[in-house]
Amino acid sequence: MTSESKPAHFLQNLIREDLAEGRVSQVATRFPPEPNGYLHIGHAKSICLNFGLAQEFGGTCNLRFDDTNPAKEEEEFVDAIKRDVSWLGFEWNGEAKYSSDNFDQLYQWALHLIKAGKAYVCDLSAEEARHYRGTLKEPGKNSPYRDRSVEENLALFEKMRNGEMEEGQCSLRAKIDMAAPNINLRDPIIYRIKKMAHHQTGDKWCIYPSYDFTHGQCDAIEGISHSICTLEFEDHKPLYDWLIENLPVPSRPRQYEFARLHLNYTVVSKRKLKQLVDEGHVDGWDDPRMPTLSGMRRRGFTPTSIRNFCEMIGVTRSDSVVDVGMLEYSIRDDLDKNAPRAMCVMEPLKVTLKNYPEGREEMLSAPGHPVRDDLPARELPFGRTLYIEKEDFREEANKKYKRLVLGKKVRLRNAYVIFAEEVVKNDAGEIVEVICSVDLDSLGKDPADGVKPKGVIHWVSAVNNVECEVRLYDRLFNDSAPDAGGKNFLDCVNPDNLQILKGCKAEIGLAKAAPEQGYQFERNGYFCRDSKYGSAEVPVFNRTIGLRDSWAKEQNK
Ligand code: ATP
Ligand code: MG
Fold first, then answer.
1. Parallel/antiparallel/unpaired status of strands 385-389 and 404-405
2. Which of 247, 282, 406, 554 is 20 to 30 A from 2, alpha carbon to alpha carbon?
3. 316 is in an annotated binding site
4. Residues lining ligand 2 (ion), CB within 5 A?
5. pLDDT score for 2
6. DSSP string of 482-536?
């Protein structure tokens, strides 16, 4: 699916109209993560949307760290977020920005509201304030501190700023309307005391602006034309607009909302992902089982696959749950087209070709990809001893089993036809070796006797290969809605989400595999070398996704 073949979504239409009617001359968007965790697949939807619209309309997209809460934010997250946005293939406009860059200006604007009689210092405790706020059905009541004079408010706010008040002792509130049907307009808090250092501003401040007092004003400072956020901010929009109207801001941004991404079998909440990390259910934010961009990258997802997925799911204003199969389809589709092929035997069984000269090795050539001529051919060392997959041999089998059977033939992929003559067993009766003969006249052609083998199996040289460890991942959760319906999502963690195979044997070329470069291990799935674990001698390969395309099949039913 390409953008050309897809009808425009509501935001594309809206921007087109804004441009056509001259309401906006230059499209400017922003992606505003809070640096309190790593980015996940939900964020990718927002990134593709914001950067995508800027690209489409010849505008700009800023990266702005929405860093108003020093308690939960860290520099580590800032760095990881930048890496992930770049990796997805997007370039932000100029330097990365921080809401905290504007703390001085926001402070001045708070003073502006106080002087205009539109903000006051309120001494109600959090508990009392809740009581005064009212409910969805009942209006709130005015705070007893609402009518303080401008002078008194200025003096008290100054004290707040100077650290002369305790946390929770008072706050600065906008004076709007305690009877407003929208609770966000009932004198919302715009500044709180937090005696805490900030990762950008150090200990300069002990009062911090609220999200609502920050976001729209930063949009205005940056000249954002379309401030796009998720639907839960719809109720904040009247406050967004009130602040823009009542402050001497340099531009008039407007907020638009779209539906968040929800994926089945997945959680996309930073808080929950953090819990998985902190409680050791996974091995860090970049664990290949995590739906974080850094985890998916390690797992072998490509930026293209994620961007295609975001394109496929579209942008709407109604909440729905997307099938994780769509994401799997998207990576499989990209890797099928672009990943070089390779062979890797997961559970090796030794094969000896009794009529192949001892000590001899020849180099066979195999295509890098069935249709991509630009991917280089591979060299496959072939000799007297090989490994095949344990499950690709049986002493006896019915006709449906199209692999190697005692007394029958099979073709070795990209190589010769072999014939199984004998099995060697250990004391426990397990097959440890298969003695075969090889038809050296069968390379790239049918055997001379006209008896064609039924199947093709993969193999590697037993002498000249790379030993490796293979990690097979399954879904992190075994429940399609791990965080719905009052469930504890931790109870839904799939206990079999990782299987580690050691002593696997891969074709020699994979010794040079770069981390995160995807390969199709023929007959097996898509894999990439892990960027964290493994050594030069024994690399670790992560299974990105299996070969089977269950989602597309489902769609075609
Ligand atoms: P979380 O619930 O994971 O903590 P958040 O909204 O608090 O998410 P932010 O760092 O504030 O996280 O998000 C940055 C931007 O990404 C916001 O504009 C937010 O709306 C958007 N975003 C976050 N999660 C999703 C999602 N699941 N789908 C689409 N956009 C999302
Ligand atoms: Mg947020």
1. unpaired
2. 554
3. no
4. 34
5. 47
6. TTSTT--GGGGB-TTSEEEEEEEEEEGGGGGPPBT-EEEETTTEEEEEEEEEE-S
- The three-class DSSP label of residue 386 is strand
Q: Is 479 annotated as a binding residue?
A: no
Do the strands 525-534 and 518-521 form a parallel or antiparallel pair, or are they unpaired? Answer: antiparallel
Task: Starting from the CA of residue 46, give the closest ligand.
Answer: 1
Distance 85 CA to ligand 2 centre (A): 17
Q: Average pLDDT of 378-404?
A: 97
> Which of 292, 311, 262 is CA-nearest to residue 476?
292
Pocket-testing residue among 46, 50, 231, 319, ligand 1, by greatest number of atoms within 8 A of Cβ = 46
Dmax over Cα atoms in the chain, in whole Å? 104
Nearest ligand atom owner, CA of 211: 2
Residue corresponding to tokens 């703390």: 103
Residue 88 marked in a binding site: no
Taking the CA of 266 as reference, the closest ligand is: 1
Q: Could you tell me how far CA 90 lies from the centroid of its own chain?
A: 15
Question: Ligand 2 centroid vs 73 CA: distance in angstroms?
Answer: 12
Selection from 122, 194, 190 nearest residue 161 by Cα? 194
Residue for token digits 């619209």?
53
**Residue 185 CB neighbours (<10 A):** 19
Closest to 472 measured CA to CA, from 399, 536, 415, 525: 525
Query: Is 313's C-beta closer than 6 angstroms to any atom of ligand 1?
Result: no
Does 43 belong to an annotated binding site?
yes
Structure tokens, 428: 């426990």
Strands 348-353 and 385-389: antiparallel
Ligand 2 centre to CA of 32 (Å) is 8
- For residues 364 and 414, the answer to whether their CB atoms sit within 8 Å is yes
Judged against a pLDDT cut of 60, whether residue 473 lies above it is answered with: yes
41 is in an annotated binding site: yes
CB 42 near ligand 1, within 6 Å: yes
Using alpha carbons, select from 503, 508, 531 the residue that is nearest to residue 518: 531
Q: What's the CA-to-centroid distance between 34 and ligand 2, angstroms?
A: 6
Out of 51, 85, 218, 230, mutate this one to test ligand 1's pocket (max ligand atoms within 8 Å of CB): namely 230
Cβ–ligand 1 contact at 471 (below 6 Å): no
Q: Which residue's structure tokens are 């939900």?
A: 42
Residue range 61-77, pLDDT digits in tens: 999 999 999 988 889 99
Which residues are identified as catalytic? 34, 260, 270
- Picking from 420, 414, 421, 409, the residue whose alpha carbon sits closest to that of residue 447 is 409
Rounded-to-integer distance, Cα 325 and Cα 193, Å: 46
Residue 183 to residue 139: CA distance in whole angstroms? 9
**pLDDT, tens only, 270-308:** 999 999 999 999 999 999 999 999 999 999 999 999 999
Which atom in ligand 1 lies closest to the alpha carbon of residue 50?
Answer: 18
Q: For 8-54, what is each residue's pLDDT tens digit?
A: 999 999 999 999 999 999 999 999 999 999 999 999 999 999 999 99
pLDDT digits (tens, 9 = 90+) for 488-535: 999 999 999 999 999 999 999 999 999 999 999 999 999 999 999 999
